Amino acid sequence: MIYVFVFQGEFGFELLNWQGVVRKFATTIALEDKIICCSRANLYLLYETADEFVDISEVPLFKQSRASAYWGIFSPAELPRYRLIGQFKEKSLKLLLRHQLKQFIWKNSQILQGNLNQPVRFILSARPTRINGCLFGWSRNDGVMDIYDLLDVENNLYRKIEPDLSWRLVIEERLKFSLDEPFLLIQTRKRDTSTKQPSPDLLETESLIEHLSRQVKIVLLSFDTGRWLDSHSDFPEKNIGYHYRCTSFPEQACLIYHARHCLFLTEGDFGSHIYVPPMMGKDVTVVAPRSIFQLESTPIDFWNQKVFTCGGQVVAAIAESVLSSDESLNQFSSHLLSKYFEQNRFVQHH
User: Fold this and answer.
1) Which has the closest alpha carbon to 283: 313, 318, 311, 304?
2) DSSP β-ladder status, 134-136 and 129-131
3) Per-residue confidence in pLDDT tens, the chain, 350 aa
4) Distance CA 178, CA 170 (A)
5) Following DSSP, what letter does each residue of 259-323 receive, concatenated?
6) Single pTM value for the model
7) How far apart are CA 270 and CA 12, in angstroms?
8) Is the separation of the CB atoms in 340 and 315 below 8 Å?
9) How far apart are CA 190 and CA 129, in angstroms?
10) Domain extents in the chain
11) Which helix (H) or strand (E) holds 68?
């Protein structure tokens, strides 16, 4: 049997309640069975048990859809679907998306092309599927909160995500320094302000970044998936730090692996980019407005105890406290550098 797993939704759901389920499922099948995993942004690092990875990022309707939990949908988050395009058209587009995905995977999978007579089963994240004791997709017990404090950890088999270090030379060529040098990796999370988000509070971190850049080498990681209404990371083009525009997950993972520490910023919601360092065994300090840490979708203690068990943890820092005064900013940066860097200061030449 060839099992084809297709993930259509949000990155956070894929990290916390999909790739771990695939890994657990892989322990239940026969040696002659095959697993093909399909997702975006070259996320092959999540699927070491797969026999093949197919990147579906460029499937036209997939790119035009909006990631929502386990689904790709076609109406903005703040509008009921019937008000924009109607339930019938939404359903039709989802069916067409499913067709495009299957057609693309059949065409681009070497395993499928080489085993045309083998039975094939597609497991799509948009459809709840229970197979070999593993539940894929939406849990009927709680369709919204099931990667948060109601996450069924026993349904997953987590492991430390290992980087693809072949990206190192490419990254060093662009940054113009060796990744052996100590540096602080900074990434943010923003979304179009016209999109309704759980927290209305914005994050002004220019003073924090400038302050840190005077004490340590910093890399400012930007990304944009190109998918409709996805969150993104960007920084003003100033002569502060080393700017790196990331085009894939392997690049991000390589930078996280080599960074002395990760400082991730987020506004609007608790961004799923924050999950990556702990799942790679590294701490991440998160600066966010107080309102974000108060959301039900931010159960940091639960995740640190039950999910992030590979050596890394989420360390919360409330923005209103960190940025309240020069003294607070100094205390925050001194603590960060003394804890994660061998020296308190590395002079940055840029």
Assistant:
1) 313
2) antiparallel
3) 999 999 999 999 999 999 999 999 999 999 999 999 999 989 999 999 999 999 999 999 998 888 888 998 887 544 454 455 567 777 888 899 999 999 999 999 999 999 999 999 999 999 999 999 999 998 655 544 468 888 999 999 999 999 999 999 999 999 999 999 999 999 987 656 556 676 667 778 888 999 999 999 999 998 766 655 555 556 667 768 899 999 899 999 999 999 999 999 988 888 889 999 999 999 999 999 999 999 988 999 999 999 999 999 999 999 999 999 999 999 999 999 999 986 544 444 44
4) 11
5) -SEEEEE--SS--GGGGHHHHTT--EEEEE-HHHHTSTT--HHHHHHHT--SS--EEEEEHHHHT
6) 0.89
7) 10
8) no
9) 32
10) 2-155, 165-340
11) strand 66-68
Q: What is the CATH number of domain 165-340?
A: 3.40.50
Map residue 94 onto helix, strand or coil.
Answer: helix
Between CA 176 and CA 311 the distance in angstroms is 30
Cβ atoms of residues 71 and 98 within 8 Å = no
